[in-house]
Amino acid sequence: MIKEFKEFIARGNVIELAVGLVMGQAFTAIVTALVDSIIMPLIVALTGQANVEKLTMEIGSASIKYGAFLQAIINFFLISIALFIVVKVINTLTKKNKPAPEDTPVKAPTVEEYLAEIRDLLAEKAEK
């Protein structure tokens, strides 16, 4: 059982998953810091209010806190936009560092070559 556990842990997929989780958590911290430290203060400067979380609606004796839902949607879009910008910058930087592939034209076979191939295949089939 210990041997099987060692094989399981040593698999590339498990290690890649662990690295991906750690990198994802670190990347989440970067995006959250970007949203909380840069984007949200800009929104506060423009609108005067940072969130709508405290908005509620009273229906009878029930209090519907729709502001929390709206704030979650706003946070989702802000984080999505920030993430898109960060990934776009990373893709642009990595694309610039890659050498451009050389354009080598692919030579398509001619009709004569196709016919010769068919002739050879028919000859092989006739010999069998």
Task: Kindly summarize this structure in a few lines.
It contains 4 helices and 2 strands. It is mainly alpha-helical and 128 residues long. Homopentamer.
Task: Note the main attributes of this structure.
128 residues, ion transport, elongated, single chain, mainly alpha, Non-ribosomal Peptide Synthetase Peptidyl Carrier Protein, Chain A, two-stranded antiparallel sheet, 4 helices, 2 strands
What would you note in describing this structure?
- The chain is mainly α.
- A hairpin with a 2-residue loop joins strand 1 and strand 2.
- The protein is elongated, with a radius of gyration of 30 Å.
- The chain has one domain: Orthogonal Bundle (Non-ribosomal Peptide Synthetase Peptidyl Carrier Protein, Chain A), CATH 1.10.1200.
- Helix 2 packs across helix 3.
- It has a two-stranded antiparallel sheet with strand order 1-2.
Apparent shape: elongated
Please describe the biggest sheet, giving its number of strands, its sense, and whether it closes into a barrel: 2 strands, antiparallel
Number of strands: 2
* Mean residue pLDDT: 81
How many H/I helical runs?
A: 4
How far the N terminus sits from the C terminus, by CA atoms, comes to 55 Å
Helix residue percentage: over 70%
